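User: If only I could read backbone structure tokens as easily as an amino acid sequence. Those tokens are not coordinates but codes from a learned vocabulary of shapes. Could you go through the record with me and say what the backbone is doing? Here is the record:
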Amino acid sequence: MGWAMNLYEKASTGLKGLDQVIDYLRFGDNVVWQVDSVSDYKKMVNYFAERAKEENIKLIYIRFAKHEPVFENDKDIKIYHINAKKGFESFATEIHNIIKEEGKRVYYVFDCLTDLLEYWHSDLMIGNFFKATCPYLYDLYTVAYFAIIRNCHTYSTIAGIRETTQLLLDLYHINDKIYIHPLKVWQRYSPTMFFPHLIQGQEAVCITSSSDAAELFNNINRGDIRLDNWNTIFNDAKKVLGASQRRQEAVKKRLMKMIIGNDSRMFKLCDRYFTLKDILAIASREIGTGFIGGKSVGMLLARKILETEGGDFVSSYLEPHDSFYIGSDVFYTYIVQNGWWRLRVKQKTPEGYYKYAKELKEKLLHGTFPKEIQEQFVQMLEYFGQSPIIVRSSSLLEDNFGNAFAGKYESVFCVNQGTPQERYEAFEQAVRIVYASTMNEDALNYRMNRGLAWQDEQMAILVQRVSGDRYGDYFFPHIAGVGYSSNLYVWDESIDMNAGMLRLVFGLGTRAVDRTDGDYVKVVCLDNPLRIPPMNLEDQKKFSQHRLDLLSFKDNIMESKDVDEVLSIPLKTDKNLFVSPDYATLARLRELGYKDYKTPYLLDFKKVFTDTQFAAIMSKMLKVLSQAYDYPVDIEFTANFNKDNGFKINLLQCRPLQTKGLGKTVMIPEIKDIKDCFFSSKGNFMGGSIRLPVDYVIFIKAETYLNLSEQDKYEVARQIGIINREMKGKNTMLIGPGRWGSTTPSLGIPVHFSEICNMKVLCEYSSKKEGFMPELSYGSHFFQDIVESEIFYVAIFDGYQDVIFNPDRILRKENLIASFLPESSSFKDVIHIANTSGMEIYSDIVTQRLLCR
């Protein structure tokens, strides 16, 4: 028979009377039984199984629940044991793959779906599983039995199941009698089909009498309006707040496993600091159900640690937060209810991982949210009013020990101006953008390279009020940045690594976490905040911040402005906290004979450190957090000042610092002949103490590179990507002018991180003549990638004190580019690849010495 005919081919329930009532089953039917107990479901299943054996149709039993088995050992029934504890995605994907492998014309019996509440805690996710699975069963021309326990699920869950399934049947067991009441029978009808029926042996007796029907239904417990199981659990937990400490701790741990995750190093930290009251407070601000994700957990945990361990000295300086959390279950619900689950499953396969990512990303940008989620979005936006908010990724694996995912997923500012409808639409699209970023190429490569491609990476979302104030038409914090409890990128042996460091900017913190071309952040060593990184005095202005990111109320967007323009606006505090007169430029103006000029300023934050307690508070915060984590940490923060130079710090994020470790002392050989030394310096490296042989050096020549067209500069980056693939497993050093990963080719080489990921050493060298300058950008997202991939980083400031740099040590060797890139001889004057067998690089983090010879 053809497909259209097969679709209506009849099948049997194994119960003759029921077949007559519903006009038989059809291949493609999903059959849901609402029952009072699994034992009642077993009766119906046994009729079905016996008929399957008679007709020689393969019967599959999907076993996942704790209830008694629906079938005992039966050699004629194939049983799959599925672990529901692994979570929705693993569970649903494994069943999808079973259905795909078993093919068409198969019978299925599933355990009772209600038991999934024990593992997933959410009615919403049971509905999602049903909606994701049943259409596939239908398409493969199967017949599948499911059961749900009556009065255990929300009306919306039952409504979703009713909408998706082909048959929904009520099964009642009253006074030792079995009744079946069809509620939905798709594409079949008879005048008596939807009456209740009494089962007597193989017969089904229709109950049409009003008196009999009333008596029957009067004996049935219809139940109250049912909350989602998730809400019921948390409501019940509130009643435990007055109970014994032991009872509260037990309930707290159960709730933590629902919103934070399973046992892990982070879970143990949370268990140590959070109380049951804390967990209930977090849950009260969650939209939907599921985990709140790593970024949210890190932020909340760090605040609790400071509140508990920091004392009044720290806690009095903390700005309060009122964040919301969009649970990870909303991410799956969005995918399932928009009909993309099968595409998601195809994308999570080795052959589909990259192939289907673009299509799924495009769909994620254009879906609709369920009505109940929309209503919760509206209520949250009503709470924030027109305050700017930021929608931030908070995936399950983010900000954890070992995986930072720094910069891999999107964060979206919502300036939050306009009508309520306009603000709602902007927010909803921001959520879509974060969801779609799970399919970004960088995110895909990151997960693949770190062995995370097949793990569940549910996307929760953190919604935060943007820290700052309104200044004219703009909104921004006075200062923002990132902080590190261990300073692994030092340039002077007098620097105390354990005092920590900051990357500080004026305005929004976006410039502190990204490498911003043409602009530089303020690098602050907290043991001596006034210490200046290695540069000549006249270069301080050049290598400082010139533009800031802010939110424009007028244009309802985030944009960049010149610092000088914004400093002319009243800042509700003393602007001299942030700027100092630029004496070098003043002297130059006087030399040139200028008389009418405004005093030029340098954004150096000098008085923030001399006139306030800011540095002391930041150092104390980092120390407290690092001690609690028993591990170095990095944080994101803002600070806002008042007219009396008082301030509040908003802690936005905290995570374990991704680092190879501090390393042991390495003996650095003495340099006998400078000509034999490739480079040497004091400091300006990152990656601990090492001694590493170097097999190959890939050298990009500054002068030749600068003379290329912009298109050819991008092509150089692509060629490096090809060479990178060939260097996997080899100890290779990549050295180039300016900044690796620059988006402006005139300032460096515009590679993606995936194009340099196989390098063991990455060097950036300055060229005063050509205008290239490395950036001390430890802590930016690009550098997080370098640290996590255990790539050793070096910045070579050619011409500075204590720096030796001999490019000829490499350039006089044979250029092997043709053996790696046979088609790219045109780039031989730019890219020089040398075999450097015998060369070694040494670094010692204690003495801050670096040598490559």
Summary: The longest helix spans residues 38-54. The two ends are 77 Å apart (CA to CA).
